[in-house]
Amino acid sequence: VSFRVPWIAGLLFLTLLMLELKDKLAAREELVAGRQVQLALMPERSPTIPGWQVWLYTQPANDVGGDLVDHLQIDDRRHAVALGDVAGKALPAALLSVKLQATLRALAPQFEALSDLGAAVNRILHRDGLPTRFASLVYLLLTADSGRVRVLNAGHMPPLVVRGEAIESMTRGSVVLGIMPDMTFPEQLVELSPGDTLIVYSDGV
């Protein structure tokens, strides 16, 4: 009996290790699948907008992440570009970023005023979210062959405007989305001339 006990204990320990490894491999496969879904929901390439050169890029710290980069064509002349950043990392943040993207795509064509759009998105995220989860967002409305950019900034870092060798920081926006239900989201406006650059980024930079 004294010789069997260590052997049986070792076998049980090895079995437990194999079961734990199986669970980790399954979780890894789910994260990879989640990453594929997240990538499929993002634009395959940077959008083509007459009069503009637009470049979109995102790279999560993990397999899935809370950053949102999206392009939505509102009508023949208006295009929306969105950059969102959900608090946290990995799967919970990724799920909320998908919720934010779906909400934006559903509501954006319905609102002319960006302040109204921000308020509507905020109410939905507050209603359906978690108390500890929130998202920042910069939503740009571009018009083909026009340098005017309408900006909704909900708690995100201020976009940068590069004019020649000068770099200007836009004013900081309102609060983040999803914290409180009744918040205001003022619209900002920036005029770009040919050769100017507007840079929107997340803290991952």
Written overview of the protein:
This protein is of the alpha+beta class. 35% of the residues lie in helices and 23% in strands. The chain contains 3 helices and 8 strands; from the N terminus they run αββααββββββ. It has helices at 4-41, 90-107, 114-128; strands at residues 67-73, 78-86, 135-143, 148-154, 160-163, 166-169, 187-191, 197-199. The strands form 2 sheets. A 5-stranded antiparallel β-sheet has the order 1-2-3-4-7, covered by helices on one side. Strands 6-5-8 form a 3-stranded antiparallel β-sheet, with no helix packed on it. A hairpin with a 4-residue loop joins strand 1 and strand 2 (78-86). Helix 2 crosses helix 3. The protein is elongated. The model has no long low-confidence stretch (mean pLDDT 83).
Distance between the termini: 62 Å
Strand order of the largest sheet: 1-2-3-4-7
Q: Any idea what the radius of gyration is? A: 22 Å
| Helix/strand structural class | alpha+beta
Share in β-strands: 15-25%
The major β-sheet equals: 5 strands, antiparallel
Q: Supply the number of helical segments.
A: 3
Q: Which parts are unreliable, with pLDDT below 50 for 5 consecutive residues or more?
A: none
Topology order in helix (H) and strand (E) letters: HEEHHEEEEEE
The best one-word shape is elongated
- Into which percent range does the helicity of residues fall? 25-40%
User: What is the typical, i.e. mean, pLDDT?
Assistant: 83
